[in-house]
């Protein structure tokens, strides 16, 4: 298994989001192994094999975690120090995943769901903070961002081999288990409890962004002033490139294979997160069903959007808001984002039109898309509150 992962990591160039070359030879420098079990009873061997690439003044680590390929590039003249902070990032990711995954037995989220309606559960400060933030996003988006939709998400099983269209009656029963107000937090005791048996939470819509922000904090605490982090499409940059130029980040073409881009944005000290129907989906009865679920109906949302990218100062903000704006649709989504400070969006519709808010421009690289920014709405500059 380890050898297969080595071959996979060295054969795949995961510089796809950051638009630079991948010419250096990768060297497997560290392999981490541990065993565990998942919620459906399976046993797994978790392996992290880090490929290091070094060129001139930067060092990059490439590895597989969080069920995706991850890339951490650090600009530092001391290669050993750069490798050490990348090692630290790998361990930080593992620790946070063990707390936040709903599939890993003994994770905070797994135990919260397992003991729903029965008892309070002690959780880590990270989990507590993320649940509190999730409640703030719920209020900000009028319930569109709802981590208590977990019973519905599990019922659909999209992204697993068990994906299926549920019966309406069963789906309604799962929808009835929603209830952000029934998610009780005790900050002083650091405990969380869901009030009814069968309820559950899923932090998948925010956890990767939170982890990216934590990696950024770790890198900056070590004096890193220029870096790029890619968590499977969650792109985050620290500062500018050492020469003062902006980072160029590709926006995935939602109608093409992964690694094909519709355009490029130039950013510094920002993060870009994209949500789209192309990410996880399945076909049944001649229809395609995707993973972005309308919390009111329990069904995959159907509007003219096919992709939403959020650009902000916080990957956690971008992560939570990308899905929420997708659910809002074009007009409401543009109005919502334009009301926020330090948040911008790129929205792509099914008729191949690209809309962006005032603070961001996209340079198209695909001829099939058209920029349509005559519909930009004046930014009223309300503050993105309760999320920092």
Would you mind describing this structure in some detail?
The chain has 388 residues and is α+β, with helices and mostly antiparallel strands. It has 3 domains: 2-100 and 208-245, no CATH class; 108-194, T-fold; 272-375, T-fold (Roll), CATH 3.10.520.10. It has 9 helices and 19 strands. It has helices spanning 2-11, 79-100, 108-114, 125-140, 150-156, 168-175, 207-221, 315-328, 330-338; strands at residues 27-37, 43-55, 58-65, 68-75, 121-122, 183-186, 191-194, 227-231, 234-238, 247-252, 261-267, 271-276, 281-284, 287-290, 305-312, 343-349, 353-356, 363-364, 370-371. The strands form 4 sheets. The protein has an 11-stranded mixed beta sheet, sandwiched between helices. It has a 3-stranded antiparallel beta sheet with strand order 5-7-6, covered by helices on one side. A hairpin with a 2-residue loop joins strand 8 (227-231) and strand 9. Helix 7 runs antiparallel to helix 8 (315-328) and helix 8 runs antiparallel to helix 9. The two termini are 41 Å apart. Mean pLDDT is 86; it is low at 1-16, 34-45 and 377-388.
Describe the structure concisely for a colleague.
With 388 residues, this protein is of the alpha+beta class.
- Succession of helices and strands: HEEEEHHEHHHEEHEEEEEEEEHHEEEE
Q: What is the count of distinct domains?
A: 3
Based on CA atoms alone, the radius of gyration comes out at: 21 Å
Provide the residue-averaged pLDDT: 86
> Counting H and I runs of at least 4 residues, what is the number of helices?
9
Strand order of the main beta sheet, please? 1-2-3-4-8-9-12-15-16-17-19
- Indicate the overall shape: globular
**Helix proportion of residues, in percent?**
25-40%
Distance between the termini: 41 Å
Structural class: alpha+beta
What's the β-strand tally?
19
What's the main sheet like?
Answer: 11 strands, mixed
Provide the low-confidence segments as ranges.
1-16, 34-45, 377-388
Strand content: 25-35%
